[in-house]
Amino acid sequence: MPEKKKHKKSKHPGQSGPNQVTGILDITRSGMGFVIVEGSDKDIMVRPSDIRSALHGDTVTVMIRSDFSRGNRRQGEVIDVVKRKQTEFPGHLQFSENFAFFIADSDKPMPDIFIPPDKYNNATAEDKVIVRIVEWQKNKKPVGETRVILP
């Protein structure tokens, strides 16, 4: 009977593949991101243009593009959102003629969320609302729906 192969545990927690790591994305007010990897004392810097569809607090996989050994910070780009920390956000709607954008009440940068007219759910520009992201296609704005109108 053939022996079962034993799988070794990775020496590096959060390692996803060659030059890839998985960790928690921390986005600063300026929009710069830093991925914190469990078991590593060095984070990975992610420029705003390389954050893609990830949001603050998401678990993401990052492709490391440069790994400096002279004390400089590693840099990378988000290649996958493994798990969303949050899908519903408080804020308000900004209306145009045929659509609205949701503007989040957050000190962390995040994209405007497109709200089609059939997803307003009777919200007005004066209302504070909770919006949920329902779709986010590559290279497009996220699409959402109004879930709750707050008092």
Summarize the structure.
The protein has 151 residues and is mostly beta strands.
The run of helices and strands is EEEEEEEEEEE
Number of helical elements? 0
What shape does the CA trace take?
elongated
* Order of strands in the sheet with most strands: 2-3-4-6-5
Based on the structure given, which CATH architecture of the largest domain is correct?
Beta Barrel
Note the gap between the termini: 68 Å
- State the low-pLDDT regions, or none: 1-13
CATH fold category name of the largest domain? OB fold (Dihydrolipoamide Acetyltransferase, E2P)
Strand content: over 45%
What oligomerization state is this entry in?
A: single chain
Rg value: 19 Å
- Any idea what the CATH superfamily of the largest domain is called? Nucleic acid-binding proteins
Which percent range fits the helix content? Answer: under 10%
CATH first level of the largest domain: Mainly Beta
Number of domains: 2
What does this structure look like?
This protein has 2 domains: 16-83, Nucleic acid-binding proteins (OB fold (Dihydrolipoamide Acetyltransferase, E2P), Beta Barrel); 88-150, Beta Barrel (OB fold (Dihydrolipoamide Acetyltransferase, E2P)). The protein is built from no helices and 11 strands. With 151 residues, it is mainly β.
